[in-house]
Amino acid sequence: MRDFSKDHRWLSINTATVRQQHGQEWPLLQILDACARQGIRAVSPWRDQVAAAGLQATSRALRSHGLELSGYCRGGMFTSDDARDGNLRALDEACELGAPCLVLVVGGLPGALNGQALHKDIAGARRQVQDGIAQLLEQARERRMPLALEPLHPMYAADRACINTLEQALDVCDALDPGRSGALGVAVDVYHLWWDPKLQAQIERAGRERLLAFHVCDWLAPTRDLLLDRGMMGDGVIDIPRIRGWVEAQGYAGYSEVEIFSAANWWQRGGDEVLKTCIERHRSAV
Ligand code: ZN
Known about the structure:
Helix content is 41%, strand content 14%. It is an alpha/beta fold. A 9-stranded parallel sheet has the order 5-4-1-11-10-9-8-7-6. The radius of gyration is 18 Å and the shape is globular. Bound molecules: zinc ion. The site of zinc ion has 5 residues, from strand 9.
């Protein structure tokens, strides 16, 4: 297992972590400047942030700073009507930005995210998700852009993602890419998966070919908001080094991406302070 205690070479910042400091949107290009100033080598930006900054301007800024991507957030939402076009654009943007993978949050019951689920057939939603991934996979293969399925904690099954365990995600991978070509894999996010008694076994099942991204933050007890109360690494109950050890035992040698949505705490602080804390905790708690 790699030693993270002496530097932050393998730290990536998911740019949602510092997206609205003191309640104000921190523009993506300024976030990239700040990351570069602090010697951070990789980021994972969100599509809306890239759209606001401009795709070409983002691409130029990444190159001029020598910043890599650890992923691109995000495609998916296969149960909504307009998924297909949005996902194709997301693929093209990921290619332009040189992302190693497009992260997919697959969607839940149609309409639920807007407060009005159109039906209660979660098994049907899962079939629709798998069909949508199968279609997108063809375009992704043409572009040589791997797709990373991100299983989300079951509390999001209705509205954001009906793939909720690593086992489920790997079942989809095995069905659609039995040859383990590298075109389809998973994003392991400790926030979503830490509780799963099968986690270690499923990480071993995933193996190197399927492990495309590793996301960290912490689970606060108690959690005050289902979406926007993620903790800084070390402030919660997840044994992050243990899970990283399992992932690295399979040969994963990529970035450890910090992804914290924290409306009441970390989004209320200055962005540079948050980045500094991410660096410290990456060394001490990841
Ligand atoms: Zn994640």
